Amino acid sequence: MIRKRVVGNWKMNGSTAVIGEVLDQLRTERYGAEVSVCVPAPYLHLAVDKLAGSPFQVGAQNVSEYGDGAYTGEVSARMLKDVGCKLAIIGHSERRRYFAESDATVVGKLARVLEVGLYGIVCVGETLAERDAGRAEAKIESQLAQLHTLMARGAGPDRFCVAYEPIWAIGTGRAASSEQIASMHEWIKRCLGSSYAVLYGGSVKAGNATEIMSIAGVDGVLVGGASLDVKDFGEICRAAG
Ligand code: 13P
Prior knowledge:
241 residues; 8-stranded parallel β-barrel; 11 helices; globular; binds 1,3-dihydroxyacetonephosphate
């Protein structure tokens, strides 16, 4: 059986003290699932140090679509790899919304991530208006469309996965229903191929993690708010196996 994956996305939260506290605790735990934490860029090095020698991995929340060079403020995939990151989240809806990342940008970023051998987590998701208008599947299909060029060049299921994060479920306390999750995960696997892992994200908590993890087609979860709480995050990791 393939291990489920639990990824904590700290977003723009945390401090040296909080990261120390949470990761010192995390490193003493053991889970059946593959667990990673994506902390803000200034803390990546610290997180890698804290988790050294443990089974837990550190990831970035974003990466530049460019290689090293004159791009002030950007962080390249090579740098992430150099400081010990193993994965990167790409195209989170907050990046698409606040930083105008397009599907083309997302594919460019994934290409950089794959070039240096990091694992990519590509986020997709529809707004409530799109879902209400019956356009959720079409939106997701269009967000996935450009990935096929990289897949044709060898980007297999061992190189990246997709995180389905309905925008209306992020940070709202209102996770998608089991039926909605099952049906969209099946759709994503139909678009990309069933061997690609699909994570669910959006109001995953200790209280709903077991149920979400048991839904057909759910290969793991991407956790925002609850990943900052060591107890809640631990319960979610345990629910994943
Ligand atoms: P919440 O778990 O806080 O809803 O955030 C989900 C998310 O955006 C993870 O990337």
